[in-house]
Amino acid sequence: MHPNDVILQTVTKVLAFIIVIFSFYVFLAGHHNPGGGFIGALTTACAFLLVSVSFDIETVKKMIPVDFKTIMAVGLLIAVISGVLPFFFGENFLWQTFDYFDLPLLGNTELATALVFDIGVYLVVIAVVLAVIFTIGEEQ
Amino acid sequence: MFETILFVALITTSVSMLICLIRAIIGPTTSDRIVALDTFGITLIGFIGVIMILQETLAYTEVILVISILAFIGTVAMSKFIERGVIIDRH
Questions:
Q1: Of A88, A97, B32, B53, which cross-links B27 as Cys (Cβ 3.0–4.6 Å)?
Q2: Which helix (H) or strand (E) holds A53?
Q3: d(CA B40, CA B50)
Q4: B58: burial class by Cβ within 10 Å (0-12, 13-18, 19+)?
Q5: ipTM over 0.90 threshold
Q6: Residue A79: other Cβ atoms inside 10 A
Q7: Does any CB of chain B come closer than 8 Å to the CB of residue A80?
Q8: What angle is formed at CA A41 by the lines to CA B73 and CA A60, rounded to 5 degrees?
Q9: Which residues does chain A have within 8 Å of residue B63's beta carbon, measured at their own beta carbons?
Q10: Segment B25-69, tens digit of pLDDT
C-alpha cells in the first residue's frame, strides 16, 4: 500500500518552521514574560515530533545528526559551567548578573547570564523528550 | 455592559465545551471522539481569549498558541494511529 500524505507533509513543511520560531521566541522571552527554557524546549520537540509523524524517524535523525545522549550531556555541561563560572570572579555558585549593551539592530538590550543556564535546560529537555519518544517508537 | 457580554460569551463557550465532552464520551466511533476533543481544544482557545479580555492581560497569548499546536499535533497523531496502526514510521 502506498500512502498518500501530500496535504499533511505540505502543511508540516510550513508549520514546523513556524513552531520552531515560536518556541525560540518563548525561550528568549522567558526573562520578562511567561516562557523560558522548559516550555521552549517542549515546543521545539513538538515541531520535531510533527515532522517525525508526517515523515519518518530517519528524517528527524537526519535533521539532528548528533546522538541525543550527547545533547543531554552538552546541556548539563553548559548549565554546570554557568554555575561554576562565578567562582573565577569571587562570587558564589550560580551567581547571576545582567548588563545593558548597545547591539546593532536591537538597540539597548539587557543581556543576562541566566540565559546561559537556560540554554542548558533547553538542550537537556529537548534531548530527553525526543529520546523517550523515539525509543518508544522504535520498540514496536 | 461589556463585562456582561464577556460573561455571556464565557457561558456559551462552556456549554459548547460541555456538548463536545458529551460527544467525546458517547461517541460511537473513535473518529467522533478525536474530532470532539479537537473541537474541545479549539473552544478552549476561545475561552482563554475571553478570559484574557476580562482580566485585561496579555499573559496568556503563549498559552493559546501552545494549546493550538498541541491540539493539532495530537489530532494528527491519533488520526494516523487509527489509519495505519503506527504513529511514527521507521522505514
A1: B32
A2: helix A37-54
A3: 15
A4: exposed
A5: no
A6: 21
A7: no
A8: 60
A9: 34
A10: 998 999 999 999 999 999 999 999 999 999 999 989 999 999 999
